Amino acid sequence: MSSTKCTKKIALVDCNSFYVSCERLFNPSINKKPVVVLSSNDGCVISRSIEAKNLGIKMGEPYFKVKKIVKENSVKIFSTNFALYGDISRRVMKTLRQFSPQMEIYSVDEAFLNLASVKNEDLLEHCYKIRNTVLKWTGIPTSIGIAKTKTLSKVANHIAKKKKSGVVSLIGIENIDPILEKVDINDVWGVGRQLTKFYHQNGIYNAKQLK
Fold first, then answer.
1. E-assigned strands of the chain?
2. Which of 31, 104, 143, 194 would disulfide-bridge 112, Cβ 3.0–4.6 Å?
3. Mean pLDDT throughout 63-88?
4. Can you give the pTM of this predicted structure?
5. Strand order of the sheet with strand 76-79?
6. Is 41 exposed, middle or buried (0-12, 13-18, 19+ CB in 10 A)?
7. Distance from C-alpha of 143 to C-alpha of 131, rounded to nearest angstrom
8. How confident is the model at residue 181 (pLDDT cuts 50, 70, 90)?
9. Picking from 69-73, 135-139, 171-175, which range would have the lowest pLDDT averaged per residue?
């Protein structure tokens, strides 16, 4: 039996390494290479390609701390170009709006879509279509996580980023504890460094324990 409107279905669409992806649109030679984008005064890392992440470059890290890794691995460096990123973001959001009348833009590279009208069995296919359309029309790769709440759709999106399909749905999964167990506490939405430290001191290391 297919279910539609009874279940809340919230999809979080998140652009992958958004600022880096924007730079790659106009500079294909940096595809598949380690790339980082630095904050306005070139002080901190605010976007990293997967290749840069794999070298151990962390988000928010001051540039002077990663200079050695950058030099040794020929990492490409860009300063922020907010006019460009804003323009691409508007194109992405305009594309997403076609897939759901109820959409909440959460940040320059993230939006929540209400997919309650989509049947459970059609959810994944629908989201593959969203991903492919955004990529085709804007050139920006995305990941999509679907769940009954925004927090859980964030968790699903976190998992989706590591999957080749780029889409993960937690809808219809009765016991999500084994999934939550694999999500580090610092990867939970709204948990920053200080809160992570507090949870660690109290023996909470993953999303299942937090729940």
1. 10-15, 35-38, 45-48, 76-79, 103-107, 110-114, 142-147, 167-169
2. 104
3. 95
4. 0.84
5. 45-48, 35-38, 76-79
6. exposed
7. 7
8. low
9. 171-175
Distance between CA 199 and CA 207 in Å, rounded? 11
Nearest to 139 by CA among 14, 13, 15, 52: 15
Query: 3-state DSSP call for residue 43?
Result: coil
* Token couple for 147: 């769940």
Phi, psi at 113, each rounded to 5°: -115, 135
Tokens of residue 150, six digits: 């925004």
| Residue appearing with tokens 């901190």 | 44
Scan for tokens 């009208």, then name that residue: 117
H-run or E-run covering 156? helix 150-160
Exposure letters 142-163 (e unless 16+ CB within 10 A, then b): bbbbbbeeebbbbbbbbbbbee
What dihedral angle (degrees, nearest 10) is formed by the CA atoms of 38, 52, 69, 193?
A: 70
**DSSP per residue, 92-153:** HHHHHHTT-SSEEEEETTEEEEE-TTS-GGGHHHHHHHHHHHHHHHH---EEEEEESSHHHH
126 phi/psi in degrees, rounded to 5? -60, -45
* Separation of alpha carbons 132 and 142, rounded Å: 9
C-alpha span between 112 and 61 (Å, rounded):
28
